[in-house]
Amino acid sequence: MEYFLSLGFTFWLLFLTFASGIIYLIDYLFFQKNRLASYREQLKALNKKQKRQFYKDHGLKAPFIADQARSLFSVFFVVFILRTFLVGNFLIPTASMTPTLPVGDFIFVDKTAYGIRAPFTNKILVNTGYPKRGDIVVFHFPVNPNVDYVKRVVGLPGDIISYKNKTLTINGKQLDYTDCDRSVMNYNNKSLSDNSGDIVCLEHLGDVTHEIDWIKSVKSQDFESLKVPEGHYFVMGDNRDNSQDSRYWGFVPEQDLVGKAKLVWMSWDKVDKKIRWNEIGKVF
Fold first, then answer.
1. I need a surface site. Which of 20, 48, 50, 252 has the fewest CB within 10 A?
2. What contacts 53, CB < 8 A, 6 or more positions away?
3. How many beta carbons lie within 10 A of that of residue 277, not counting itself?
4. What dotted CATH number matches 92-275?
């Protein structure tokens, strides 16, 4: 069972598309002609009124399986194209991106933002752009490509990154942090049970200004003068002291990018068992 689950949603969607398409094609090529001929023979012996009743009772429908396959093929094919090449859905599973993306947010991912890619191989078919500093990106985890992560792009190819005393320096310029507010409560005025930070600041990252969390009691994971290789990106979570990111497992190769986070379409608070209406519609 674990093996079949590991094949992923895209594989099974493609399998269902092919299976329904093949069933419909077999019926069309080998059975539909004979079925129509049989109908014509039966209609020859009927008068006009009987023909109307025949159409009402039988019509020209294919057998149940073939009829369902024809209907489902269209649905599976459209969903496969949308899901594989255009837009994806991602559920925020951890607190690593709070306060921007709390646990339980469902986001739409623009899969065309960084290139239209082939399924399974993720090879770029059409180049449409590159990540910008501050983008929230979804990518295949380099250590385990079967798992997708969401983080914020901090370093671009060629950048030199340093992180000291919980402060980022990019290409020799230290980032500005403003409006820092120390609190023992998180963004939703609840206790820190979800590992959100106890200090919230605005980080000015290039053209993007966004909130980050710090946990005062956690030691800073410092490093100096780390150069981002060509074709790679340095990513971090907005919850800086509760995020497994490039500081721990390295850079994200361009080939592992899935897309750019665009919109929160649903948000579910699993603690209070309710919808967070204030999160829905948030655009990035």
1. 48
2. none
3. 8
4. 2.10.109.10
* Three-state DSSP class for residue 54: helix
Q: What is d(CA 175, CA 167) in angstroms, rounded to the nearest whole number?
A: 7
Q: Which of 87, 237, 229, 264 is nearest to 149 (CA)?
A: 237
Catalytic residue among 111, 151, 166, 260: 151
Closest listed residue to residue 83, CA positions, set 13, 6, 22: 13
Angle, CA of 170, 175 and 180, to the nearest 5°: 150
Clarify whether 44 is annotated catalytic. Answer: no
**What Å distances lie between residue 108 and 90, 103, 181, CA to CA?**
7, 15, 30
Q: Of 49, 56, 74, 96, which residue is the catalytic one?
A: 96
Residue 132 a catalytic site member: no
Amino acid at 276: R
Q: Is the peptide bond before 99 cis (omega within 30 degrees of 0)?
A: yes
d(CA 69, CA 63): 10
Record the pTM: 0.78
Q: In Å, how far are 70, 185, 214 from 189, measured between CA atoms? A: 52, 5, 16
pLDDT in tens, the chain (284 residues): 444 444 467 777 888 899 999 998 888 888 877 776 766 666 666 676 666 666 666 656 677 888 888 889 989 998 888 888 999 999 999 999 999 999 999 999 999 999 999 888 889 999 999 999 999 999 999 999 889 999 999 999 999 999 999 999 999 999 999 888 755 434 444 434 455 567 889 999 989 999 999 888 888 889 999 999 999 999 999 999 999 999 999 999 999 999 999 999 999 998 899 999 999 999 99
**CA distances for 175 relative to 11, 17, 167, 213, 283, angstroms:** 43, 49, 7, 15, 24
